[in-house]
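seq:
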Amino acid sequence: MAARNHSYVAEFIWMLEAALFDALRALARLFPIDYVSNSGAWLCRRLGPLTRAHRVAERNVRIAFPHLTDAEVKTLLQEQWTELGRSLAEFAILDRVVADGSRLAIDGEALLGAIAAADRPVVFVSGHFSNFEMMAAAMVRCGVRVQVTYRAMNNPYMDERVRRTRFSYGVRMFAPKGLEGARELMRAIGRGESVALLNDQKFNGGVEVPFFGVPAMTAPGPSTFALRFGIPIQPLSVQRTGPGARFKVVVHEQIVLEDTGDRDADIAEGVRRITAFIEDRVRARPAEWFWVHRRWPNDVYRRHEPVGAPAPD
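struct:
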């Protein structure tokens, strides 16, 4: 009975979260795009530092940039909350942002067009940079046939709304789970469709490679797919150009992996190269990365924990 009551409570909370999202989305759609973006920045800049996620972000910044002064760390944290607030608010009006062609520039649009026109798919990789939804929008604009993967939300009502929001500007999502999910991605590549994955978060069953000089477990999926099908890895990134909700998607030089016959070593090399690409992008525009995720193993956070401070959750 207790477990059943708990499920009722969870169901109620999920429905409440979805209703709140619907209300905020309806409110956001009453205002101009940049007003919504600026409002999200203002709100998150004030509320973000009061959350437990702020401790995670601060530890991450100090691990990645150990030579920053306290004042520089504080400034970077304020900037990343501003950026995160903009992206969260913009999600409610993504279709309006994408529909305004002046708000999304593509550096390398011809390269995406060539991928769309070719019979050979690619493995798109990127990280949680700025409003990372813009990368999917760029692929849709250029006519690329692609399965954009994502992690399904625990709240099924919110997950449905997220999928519907992305569907509104042309993105078809796929949430792979387990072995069957991986097989479905392989079938998509076999049909000539590209796949797109964000490859900058902790993956406990992954490959250990350095990220800012610190070992980090990283998903091997993109490298595995590229080697299995003999196709290139196509890195993308997105930058906020401002003011407000204006962006540039950058198509970077492809990563072509060598198949030496040592599959484990070849996959590890691919993971290392992708992670190095992610790190370079974070170093170039640190305020635009998703710092609130626990990227490194727990023992790394314990070593960087200030005396007397609780460990981040």
